[in-house]
C-alpha cells in the first residue's frame, strides 16, 4: 500500500533552512529550491491554481508582494487567466501611486501600488512567499482596499505562526491559505 501524497510535506522537503541568516538566531526559510526544480515548482503552483479555480474563491486579479510574491503571483494569475498587479517597495513604480507604511522589527518600510492597478469591487487574491509578522501582507491589503478592491484571501507558501503574523492577519478578518507551516520547527 502506498502512503498518501502530502503536498505540504513534499514542499517542506524542498525548502532550505539557512541558520543564522540574516542575523544570529534566525532560521531563514529559503524557497528558492522550490523554484529550481521544475517538478516541485509545478506542484507548488498547481496547489494554488487548483484552489483558486473554485468559483467561490476565483479572483478577478492576483496581487503579488515585492519580490517573491511576483514569482508566484504572476504564474498563478497566468494559469487562472486573470490579471496580475505588483505591490512594490517605495520608489519602484513609475506612475501615480498610493502608499502604505508598516512597521518592521527595527524601523519601517513602505509599499506602493499604481492607482489604476485594480478597479472598485474587484476580488483580489494577495500572494507572497511567506508570512512572518504579517506587516507586508497587511500593508498590501490596505493599499488594495484604498482603491476599492476586496481582498478575498491572503496566500503564501510558508507560515511562521510563532511570529504572530498569521494570527494578526486572521484577527483583522483576512482569510489565509498557506501550504507549509513551520510551527515549532
Any descriptors?
two-stranded antiparallel ribbon, 185 residues, 31% helix, 9 strands, 33% strand, alpha/beta, Rossmann fold, seven-stranded mixed beta sheet, globular, 6 helices
Quickly describe the structure:
This is Adenine phosphoribosyltransferase. The chain is α/β, with parallel strands linked by helices. The protein has helices at 7-12, 32-36, 38-52, 68-80, 135-146, 165-171; strands spanning 16-19, 27-30, 61-65, 83-89, 97-104, 107-114, 123-131, 150-159, 176-181.
Overall pLDDT: 95
Named CATH topology of one domain: Rossmann fold
- Sheet-strand content, in percent, reads 25-35%
Give the total of beta strands.
9
Q: How far is it from the N-terminal to the C-terminal residue, by CA?
A: 29 Å
Q: Level of helix content?
A: 25-40%
> Quick one: overall form?
globular
Number of helices: 6
Tell me the quaternary state.
Answer: single chain
Q: Quickly give the CATH architecture of one domain.
A: 3-Layer(aba) Sandwich
Largest sheet: 7 strands, mixed
- In spatial order, strands of the major sheet run 5-6-4-3-7-8-9
Q: What's the CATH C level of one domain?
A: Alpha Beta
Structural class comes to alpha/beta
Order of helices and strands: HEEHHEHEEEEHEHE
Q: Give unreliable regions as ranges.
A: none
Q: What gyration radius follows from the Cα positions, in whole Å? A: 16 Å
